[in-house]
What does this fold into?
Amino acid sequence: MNVKHGLRYHPLYKLWGAIRGRTRNCPKYVGKGRDLDPGWLDNPEAFIEYVETNLSDKPTPRHSLDRIDNNLGYVEGNIRWADSLTQANNRPQATPRTFRGEVSTMTLLCLKYGVVKHNIQNSMRRQGLTFEEAMNRQLP
It folds into this structure.
């Protein structure tokens, strides 16, 4: 059955289709609670209405839809527009680090303090330093 909803060329329709496919076919999503909201599964209109009503417009072409809590699916209250840096630091592999009492990812702490991440990683790997020791050697 073909459904005519007039959304084929809506920019969010393609996004809905990609998310729907990923949550139904990709092993990283299927059966792990990372589903598409049941109200959106077969209803692109509801998905588009939610995004347009509850999220701001897509800030830049470099932003994409991100799950705030990666253990949850694409559901109401768990999606946002995010740039690639935000998304990379929201991955499970982004191990939290502590430096000067602040907990964040290595990438964000290096950016904040103006330190080259590669240099920190090399110091940790080659010299056996902790993250904090490697950072302190790079900073005055």
